[in-house]
Design brief:
With 833 residues, this protein is an alpha+beta fold. α1 runs antiparallel to α2. The longest helix has 26 residues, at 454-479.
């Protein structure tokens, strides 16, 4: 079963790859591939292409499931072995045949019929070769010989003038996370993760189709539809543009042999804009169906894609950082996304699962982190359709990179290719140079650790400027169609005061700095692009880690990749729900690990919930909040709110509540505020019930007027007697209900002055009964954070709820779940006194 789980996780993504935009007629080379080690010790074995080495080795029993126990280390030899991947194919008659690899990971020499074609050294861009005169009608032998990425990177590091931070991985243009991260395993490997095909470029075709939105108003959109038409026969041609199947523009052009840049102006009357989801804005993520057809001398080329009309910029006024979409500010609610599988690209099903979870949690933004991959086109198609804004990093993270001309030339091609590939997606609203490169230079002590001289430091910093302020900035300016560029995230390190006054911040004082969760209320940035807290995954996922489920088991500990992860979790557990009870907490970890796992999950939900509240309470000064992280790449103890198998932790449900368009929150002084993303002013009715111990005191209703993307205080009484600011006292629990003028409920949630761990953990008198497939909960006092976990590991549509006195809450269980076997826990179970 464990091998099956691994193969499901790794092999399913191999089938998913969209046809790149603008291909000539394609013959895909998918079948008949094999892999063997160059030393003859392994193989030949069947290999799936697109695909990489590890799944083939698992399927053949050469290595054991790397997702289980400590098998990852036992497979380390794979990364230092030379591998030969090959196939034999027949070729149809072609006038101008080209062999195209959409992705080669990473250092490889390619041979066709025993003759060298080219060498590759960058997994993030295509490679191609003209094979005219080299093809046979039958029996063509295509061989890709992979040199070990680790060895090549080590050799490049030795040859470089200075030692760079995080060498040698920085020399390899391969997904950096595969060298191991504090949430993922080290499996570098090799392979062909994207399609391989033959193209006949003698035929009429076009590339680089995109629509440049030059002007967008309520009445009209002026769009220039651009493409590169390639033909071998000069002469007149007709270009037609259609929207939704209706021709909207036709242009006659004179083509010359070779590449021809063609632009067709299009006017869209009364345009429907693409709008971000979960933003309180009218409209939807609308997309038009854009078709372009080129006809020349009886030949026809056509292509259809989607078109989303929107404008985007980042408002940096006064040091701020706020996305402005279609002329209006959008508060960014979301999370960081890491790669979804160990073998990329992910399937559409996996992508829809992860991005769908983001939408379900009330998000409108995801950040594609710079240590992973440029996702396949399907990722951005799904984001477009859901209305998710995408902050897109270039693939550089937590290190300094080479700046020699050969390396920069590779990056120039990589950046140009990916920006052009993704520029037609309205979801992509920002290109960022990379992750924590600038911060590492100024705050992590690299220069001291590596013994840099002044000359070394000058060399390294000039390299940073050439890469992030030169090559990448130029690629965005030239190709991105007006999408903004941000050189590096964050702007400043979280230990500096300026980090909270301008730009974006990665606040890791909680976790790395071991500050209490209350620090989230004091350290609020203009845009909070990273912060987080670890937790165990759902227990069904924990059961896949190892044979012995104990933190003392080395194989189990292999699924905690942070160097002090278990110890840091224990620190926060003692500080919060553990109430400093060392003996009680350690006994819980030893004797009831499932209960301790829930403690970490509740701690994550409540701690990150405090950050989400603090950030929204500071809008519009604060432009957004993206926690670390949404998803996992394998089963692991991590910062994710959705684990590797798509199982949602309590944080997911807490986030959903706090990301609603209207969300009651408390600021650092306990004053209750109503945060809203609504575009227009609205009349809201607010009712607050406050409990202190066993006594509930209900306040009267009164009206509150709100405006777009800001917060307003809840008055302390009716309009005639109100004092600005209803302030909660320590230990109080407030239920805040918000309705609109029509009585529709917009929010119904709890608000606390302090963290839930500060409350007296009274017995709420929580009870539940089974009614068919539903659990029905009642309580004598407020029962907070009620969590239902199924032994089957199935997600509930609603979970981690609060149960209020006098009301019954029903949770409907999915089909196939045995209600007699569910585990019910709550925040009130976590006091270890």
């Amino acid at each position: 079963m464990r091998r099956f789980v691994f193969l499901l996780a790794l092999l399913l993504p191999l089938a998913a790859s969209a046809q790149p935009l603008g291909d000539a007629p394609v013959g895909r080379l998918y079948a008949g591939w094999t892999v063997r080690s160059a030393d003859g010790r392994v193989g030949p074995l069947p290999m799936a292409v697109p695909g990489t080495i590890h799944p083939s080795l698992v399927r053949a029993g050469v290595i054991s499931d790397p997702l289980f126990g400590a098998n990852e280390q036992a497979a380390a030899w794979v990364d230092t072995t030379t591998w030969v991947v090959e196939t034999t194919f027949d070729a149809p008659p072609m006038g101008d045949p080209w062999l195209v690899f959409d992705g080669i990971d990473t250092y490889a020499d390619v041979f066709l019929n025993d003759a060298p074609l080219f060498s590759a050294r960058n997994a993030f861009r295509p490679h191609e070769a003209n094979v005219r005169g080299r093809l046979r009608p039958t029996g063509n032998r295509l061989v890709v010989r992979f040199r070990p990425t680790v060895r090549e990177a080590e050799a490049a590091a030795r040859a470089y003038p200075i030692r760079l931070p995080e060498s040698p991985r920085v020399f390899a243009r391969t997904p950096q996370y595969r060298f191991g991260w504090d949430w993922g395993p080290r499996l570098v490997g090799a392979g062909l993760p994207r399609p391989v095909r033959l193209e006949d470029r003698a035929r009429l075709h076009a590339t680089g189709l995109h629509a440049d939105v030059q002007r967008l108003t309520n009445d009209r959109a002026d769009v220039s539809v651009r493409t590169i038409v390639r033909t071998r026969a000069p002469g007149p041609a007709t270009v037609r543009v259609a929207l939704g199947g209706r021709t909207v523009a036709t242009r006659r052009v004179a083509l010359r042999a070779g590449d021809n840049a063609v632009a067709v102006p299009v006017v869209v009357r009364n345009p429907v804009r693409w709008e971000p989801a979960n933003s309180g804005r009218p409209g939807a993520p609308h997309r038009y169906r854009l078709s372009v057809t080129v006809e020349q001398g009886g030949e026809v080329w056509s292509h259809t894609q989607t078109l989303g009309l929107r404008t985007v910029r980042v408002d940096r006024t006064g040091g701020g950082f706020t996305f402005v979409v279609n002329g209006r500010p959008v508060y960014a609610k979301g999370a960081n996304v890491v790669p979804m599988t160990l073998v990329y690209p992910a399937t559409r099903e996996r992508i829809e699962q992860v991005l769908g979870a983001a939408i379900d949690a009330g998000m409108n933004t995801v950040r594609v982190w710079g240590g992973g991959v440029y996702e396949d086109d399907v990722f951005y198609d799904v984001a477009d359709s859901l209305g998710l804004m995408v902050w897109q990093d270039f693939m550089f993270s937590s290190a300094f990179y080479p700046s020699d001309n050969a390396f920069l030339d590779e990056v120039r091609q990589e950046a140009g290719y990916n920006v052009q590939r993704l520029r037609h997606h309205p979801s992509v609203v920002l290109w960022c140079g990379g992750n924590e490169v600038r911060e590492g230079w100024f705050n992590w002590g690299w220069q001291r650790q590596l013994g840099y001289s002044a000359q070394d430091s000058v060399h390294a910093w000039r390299g940073y400027e050439r890469l992030f302020e030169g090559v990448l900035a130029e690629a965005v300016a030239r190709h991105a169609g007006g999408v903004p560029y941000w050189p590096n995230s964050p702007s400043h390190g979280w230990g500096r005061d300026v980090a909270y006054r301008e730009g974006d911040v990665h606040f890791w004082g909680v976790w790395w700095g071991r500050m209490p969760f209350e620090a989230y209320r004091r350290r609020v940035g203009r845009f909070n692009s990273e912060y987080g807290m670890q937790a165990y995954p759902v227990w069904k996922t924990v059961e896949t880690f190892a044979d012995t489920l104990s933190e003392a088991n080395p194989a189990f500990r292999n699924h905690q990749k942070h160097p002090t992860g278990f110890e840091t979790l224990r620190h926060y557990a003692l500080q919060t729900f553990g109430r400093g009870d060392t003996l009680g907490l350690d006994a819980l970890r030893r004797d009831d690990l499932p209960a301790y796992a829930f403690l970490t999950q509740a701690m994550q939900a409540e701690g990150i919930g405090m950050a989400l509240e603090a950030h929204r309470a500071n809008a519009p000064r604060t432009g957004g909040s993206l926690y670390w992280q949404l998803n996992d790449v394998w089963p692991v103890v991590s910062w994710a709110s959705v684990d590797h198998f798509g199982r949602t932790k309590p944080l997911h449900y807490r986030t959903r509540v706090l990301n609603r368009t209207v969300a009651p929150v408390a600021d650092s002084t306990g004053i209750v505020r109503i945060a809203t993303d609504t575009i227009a002013a609205a009349r809201l009715m607010v009712q607050v019930d406050v409990w202190d111990g066993a006594t509930g005191v209900e306040t009267p209703q009164w009206g509150v007027s709100t405006t777009a993307v800001k917060t307003v205080r809840v008055p302390s009484g009716p309009a005639s007697t109100a004092v600005p600011g209803l302030r909660l006292a320590a230990g109080q629990v407030a239920r805040v209900r918000v309705t609109d003028a029509n009585g529709r409920t917009l929010a119904d949630t709890r608000v606390l002055r302090d963290g839930a761990w500060r409350l007296p953990m009274y017995d709420p008198g929580l009870r539940w009964t089974v009614d068919g497939r539903a659990l029905v909960f009642t309580a004598d006092r407020p029962a907070l954070g009620v969590w239902v976990e199924t032994v089957e590991g199935v997600n509930l549509s609603v979970n981690y709820i609060d149960v209020w006195p006098g009301e019954a809450r029903r949770l409907v269980l999915p089909p196939g779940v045995d209600p007699a076997r569910v585990r019910v826990r709550s925040l009130h179970d976590l006091c270890l006194r």
